[in-house]
Amino acid sequence: MIWMTFCAAYGPFSGMANAQAPMDFYQTFVAGGVSSGFADGAFDRARFHDPQGLAYDEENESLYVADSGNHRIRVVRLDEMNRVETIAGNDIAGTQDGPVSLATFEYPVLLTLLSPTRLVVYDDKSMAIRMVDLKGGKVSTLTKVGGVSDMVYIPTDDSLYLAEPDNGKVERFDLRSNLLSVVLQNNANMPHPKELAVLHGNLCLADRDLGSILEWVTPASSPIGKGSFSLLGTVSSVLSLAVTGDKLYCIDKTGSLVEVGNPSRQVHFITPWGTPFDNQDHGMSFIQPSFGPKAGFATASADTRKFFIVSNQQIDSVRDLHVENVFDMDFDYPVKKPKNTFRILAIGGSRNCVVYPIPDDPAKHLDEDLVPGGNTMQKTFCKQLEFKLNLEASFQDNKLHYEVLNFSRRGKSLSSWVYEDIPDFVKKYDIDLVIGMTEGSGYQDYYDKPLTSEGIPSRTINQDYLLKPLSQRATTGPASDLLKRCKALKIPVSEKQDSPGDGLWSLFCTGDAQIEKDLIQLTGQRLDMMNAKLKKIRTSSGKAPQFLLYYVPTDLFPNECCVTFWKALGDYYHLPFVDFSDTYNALKVVYYPANAAHYSLYGNRLIAEILFHYLIQNKYVPFSRNVPEGRKGFGDE
Fold first, then answer.
1. Which among 48, 267, 294 is positioned nearest to 149, based on CA atoms?
2. Using an 8 Å Cβ cutoff, are 65 and 296 in contact?
3. What does pTM read for this prediction?
């Protein structure tokens, strides 16, 4: 009785169901539900009935859907929290042309967007190709063709190409003359053309039975239908083709996403927990494609290697970031930053990219090399931070998407490489914020590498240079001053050493003010020069990327000396620096075991939590709520 009263007053889970914005991650829900039906409105409450064909409109950020079972053409407004609305059609199957409010469709299965104002629909039951004038709000019939399994548009000749596997042919419909002609028939290379795509301006075809995927290379001076076939790859039982960038992908009968090539590559999806998975892992199918006339599959042209896929009664999106071979390097993010995306670059040494695994057997020693695959990038704090930002954005109706890229140099101090590598990387990938986990100093570079014209060490060690006595490799500036100060304080140093001290942290804990000043300059000069370069860069937002240094304690370093040093360096060069030692120390037992030489999975999650709160609270990361009118967020009354 209490439950019935609650539901009557509020509806089941009423506040929470409509509080979230769509989450944009590696594989995410776009719109729909687990069961068929019909409903427009919020993405999580919209319902489809056997959705099939998809078409993406980059200009208006809209995804059009052939909602076959509902005999409707629907659109997902991706720029309006994935709101779903009906463009044309109603629950009465028919072939009525005219205003979209009166027009009817009969099981529409294929969609092709000719321009932001023209959408072509193929009705499977009536075998009619229809044109929807999105600006004028009218529907008209262009022609009738039976047995069409796929349809694409090539703008160079303003024509639709239609695959007809049962008839063994491809036809061309010229939109200027409204003439239909056969361009391929009874061809031994492609006896039953079933799926089509356009790559490099050429028609790509997948055969129904052979599994061959061919590119029909047509010389510019030749009419379509003349040319040669080039094998792109072989995939069994292709259900749909799509192009992103200069790559061709397909969905096969198992629901697997495949990059077509020689050999073709199955895409593994990324979980937030660190384990890539195939579509059929453990008997569960992430992608459940339609086995009707068309398996819905489309690419987001503004976001390379992002795909929209119809899966059962809903639409999902997935990304292919090439996760199979990553270890030190980050995922293969597209160079072009997607719209409404804030990109963070995490830089550092091995602590930035390593997660030591926790064995199932508690008697086993914690060893980073014990468990194969234990160091997957998705388990690092960088990727956990990315996940937390996007998850919280979903809860808070925040329209922004967040990407945290990783750039690591194992065994290298930040100052040794960031000046040469990071500014170009930041410019290339349109980075908004650079966060650097402080490691060692890198001061020894000034003794084992010749100086450049800028007065900083060259990138590579020169063996002949190293054969010189130490004093001849430190003749000017802080490097010379440090060597003289060590001798004056009788700190053991010889001409055969690579550098004063042990190259690590012995000199940092002497308490000598002059030594600390020399080390600050030898460490901070290149960081300061890098930051100066960053300030001259302008991101797509029109702003310069921000830079933040931070410290997290580790068993590797004498932490008190390290913190004192990095704080002083930040003050000297006016570089933002934050010490997370107290917060990490206060919570590390809660996340036990958090770290040894490197951080465990739990330690990485703790660092992600600390960064998540600090970056938002101190406005390094924009994070504002965007609650549409009529909707409530979590905690709202």
1. 294
2. yes
3. 0.88
